[in-house]
Amino acid sequence: MKQTNWIDISQPLTNDMAHFPGDTPFNFSLAYTKKQTGSANIGQMTGSLHTGTHIDAPFHYDTGGKTVDQLDLDIYIGPAVVLDVSHSEKITADTLRKFEFNGAARVLLHTSLPNNPKRFPEKFPDLDPSIAPFLNEKGVKLLGVDMPSVDPPDSKDLATHHALYDNEIFILENLMLDHVTPGNYELIALPLAIDGADGSPVRAVLKPTD
Fold it and tell me: How far apart are alpha carbons 14 and 36 in whole angstroms?
């Protein structure tokens, strides 16, 4: 029986990857080399918690919200459905109504934004806040997108973040879905256990279940 391999849908963390304007860029370097220590290479990294593929904790947009270490890990593991919404620049509840969710509590949206981790896009497809109550009715607990954010980069009110939050839907951003066929999958996208953090990088992977 052929074994099905996991599909990596994460952005590689590289020193030339894009980041939110004004945010801290990712950087990896060797703090000490094996030659220096006599035993091992030792690396270090710096950067925003919202660089690359990452989750937003509610604390990111609500000072009273849960931090990463307080989140239920079951949210980030389990059945997921990948939906192709690349035909639409404005994604609304009506856009999503034509799809079958197959009971998946995790929905990943493949939008029209090409996967390019080295370029921060000037404009994203528009995720209308109306998607939140609709997804809640479908039993969705996690929304993943292949964009840097569920809101425009210049948004101050973060309307879609808050609409999802009000409907108890958590957020996964900056996925790589150009190489993924729409359908049913098993998702693993675990955040790091960073005490008090507003977000976390994840290694997001899918396994087909169709």
Answer: 24
List active site positions. Answer: 60
Q: What are phi and psi of 56, to 5 degrees?
A: -100, 125
Q: CA–CA separation, 116 vs 119, rounded Å?
A: 6
Sheet with 142-145, side-by-side order of all strands = 7-8, 205-208, 183-188, 77-84, 106-110, 142-145, 170-173, 54-56, 199-201
pLDDT 10s digit of each residue in the chain, 210 long? 445 699 999 999 999 999 999 999 999 999 999 999 999 999 999 999 999 999 999 999 999 999 999 999 999 999 999 999 999 999 999 999 999 999 999 999 999 999 999 999 989 999 999 999 999 999 999 999 999 999 998 899 999 999 999 999 999 999 999 999 999 999 999 999 999 999 999 999 999 997
Reduce the secondary structure of the chain to three states and give it as a string: CCCCCCEECCCCCCCCCCCCCCCCCCEEEEEECHHHHCCCCEEEEECCCCCCCEEECHHHCCCCCCCHHHCCHHHHEEEEEEEECCCCCEECHHHHHCCCCCCCCEEEEECCCCCCCCCCCCCCCEECCCHHHHHHHCCCCEEEECCCCCCCCCCCCCHHHHHHHHCCCEEEECCCCCCCCCEEEEEECCECCCCCCCEEEECCEEEECC
